Amino acid sequence: MTELAPTYRSHAQTRLIWALCIASVVIYINLYTVQGMLPSIAEHFDVSGAQATLVLSVTSFTLAFSLLFYAVLSDRIGRLAPIVVSLWLLAASNILLIFAETFDELVWVRLLQGVLLAAVPAISMAYFKEQLAPNFMLKAAAVYIMANSMGGIVGRIFGGLMAQNLSWQSSMGLVFLVTLIGVALVTYLLPRKEIKPAVIKEKVSLLRKIKQDFDGFMFHLSDQQMRLAYVIGGLAFMMMVNQFSFIQLHIMAEPYGLSRFNATLIFLCYSSGTFASYLSAKWILRYGSMPLFRVALALMVVGTLLTLVDTLIAIVVGFLITACGFFLTHSCCNSFVAMRAVSHRAKATSLYLCCYYFGASIGGPYLMMFWHEAEWNGVVVGSISLLALLLLAIWRLGIHQQSTEVFNRDD
Questions:
Q1: ∠ CA 392-398-400 to the nearest 5 degrees?
Q2: Where are the transmembrane segments (predicted)?
């Protein structure tokens, strides 16, 4: 960090944190607005409610694998340009949604948007680690994840509110306007100077660069603890985000009979996750990741089972508990990956998020099978199966960490 004067560095760090947090809110509004509009999308495009959930799954799928591309690109040309360009193209892509006339057209645009949405989450944690002083890092990561949660809440509630009061075209026009304002603000706030990744300065052939990129990904995939962190994040998100899709269908049906907008208010349960994300840095420093992983898993199990109680208040409390556990898991995984990566940092983060969003993309079709068999009770059974796998992954991560500690003491 000695390349920049102290006064500028402090100012640039603050601007960077604000810029990437606002960018995160913009990204998650665009990703999750459609989740708050699922019943409206089903009606407008004449598809079933379960089929409408595909507009989230397909975006998560292309987002997942595009993360790897942006990790390589940002290592080659820097962090700033990919973020700015992708955000402006994302704003422009919302114009296509305004004119989508069929469900197939909607799905194709959402596939494209997944590619554009990937830049910010792929690059942000590596950007933080390179540009921020070490004492800023954990705090910035916690605030950034809190911004992720806020963007998810705002996007879903925003979608429900628009579905209740606006046409599809008007809704997408409003999303375009909000995105445009957010992107302009991010572009203004992002510091123009950046500490370039070391790999940019290397003068090597194209084949050598490709090999370096491949080796970077393999370096992290060969690390057992990294692999387990990737699996933990993927399984947790596979369950969590798709539970929120199917619970809307559940509470709009009898005996609850909630309206479209009232059903989307269930997304306010993400607020407990926002709170957990904010406190996660302090908890990780005090207790360590492994105890928090176990607490988070217990919270997700209790919260999921509580939704089987046949009252609306039990469902709300269950989702508050589950969201808290999920975001605690996500914060632990994010911090673990960022702090463990000593090189190829963007690749380490992108591999984690690739698994994370790939989990989201396959979780919809996976839980849809259980929904068709037994509706919400089936979704709970499918969720508990995923949590059992999550338990196994957390247990194995704990075993590997203990083995590493013993090995280090023996040395």
A1: 105
A2: 16-34, 54-73, 80-100, 106-128, 140-159, 171-191, 228-249, 261-279, 291-309, 315-339, 351-372, 378-399
